[in-house]
Amino acid sequence: MNDQNDPKIVQLFADVGAVVRDSHFVYSSGRHSSVYINKDAIYLHTGVISELCRYMAEPYNADQVDVVVGPVIGGVVLSQWVAHYLNQRRSRGETLAVFAEKGSDSPDKQFSFNRGYDRFITDKNVLVVEDVLTTGGSVRQVVDLVRHHGGNVVGISALCNRGGVQPRDVGDVAIHALVSFSLQTYSEDECPFCQQNVPVNTELGKGKAFLARQKAQGK
């Protein structure tokens, strides 16, 4: 864990059991680790997620953020709360909250703006929010999407940066993460837990999908 993390925020994560250790986890990125940041444990508690989103909004000038965008699913909750706290400090107009999603209009698994949300992006200052950064891939897609629709990305605000993601990884956009964890992760081929036959955790992360894929491949 980063020694520069605010103890109050770290305690909020700990209080809801959002940091799980000593198991064999598979991340959405496909990488493996012994530590998992359980963002779903945070979303159960509206008071906690509200307070965390207040911290996420704090570094930004409310009058200079027109729209908050988050990727589904967790980003929907974050965009709502962060926009709420920006609006409490805004002197004019309103900060809107929208989300990007993957669906029938994005067969290549890329994010898109559905529901007419793209109309609210053009020529606007946009803050992108995310719960956990591992590789930055999803956030980079959202940044590119906003730019494609003519929006100006003013920053990325995240609950947690667990992958050491840097601005260069997400389109050269400044990142503000409430907490940063220095977690050792491994590819499937180099994973020591796989080599030692440590059972994959199927309750958290993408363990079930990983095992199903291995079974289909005859491994």
UniProtKB/TrEMBL annotation:
Q: Check the record and name the SUPFAM superfamilies matching this protein.
A: PRTase-like (SSF53271)
UniProt organism field:
Dictyobacter aurantiacus
Q: Which UniProt keywords are present, listed alphabetically? A: Glycosyltransferase, Magnesium, Pyrimidine biosynthesis, Transferase
Quick check: keyword Signal in the entry?
A: no
**Entry's EC annotation:** 2.4.2.10
What does the record give as the reaction this protein catalyses? orotidine 5'-phosphate + diphosphate = orotate + 5-phospho-alpha-D-ribose 1-diphosphate
Q: What class of enzyme is it?
A: transferase
Where is the Phosphoribosyltransferase domain positioned along the sequence?
53-167
Task: Report the pathway entry.
Answer: Pyrimidine metabolism; UMP biosynthesis via de novo pathway; UMP from orotate: step 1/2
Coiled coil: which residue ranges? none
Q: Which residues bind 5-phospho-alpha-D-ribose 1-diphosphate?
A: 102, 130-138
HAMAP family this protein is in? Answer: PyrE
Q: Spell out the subunit comment.
A: Homodimer.
Tell me the classification of the organism that encodes this protein: Bacteria, Bacillati, Chloroflexota, Ktedonobacteria, Ktedonobacterales
Entry's PANTHER family? Answer: OROTATE PHOSPHORIBOSYLTRANSFERASE, URIDINE 5'-MONOPHOSPHATE SYNTHASE
- Put simply, this protein is called Orotate phosphoribosyltransferase
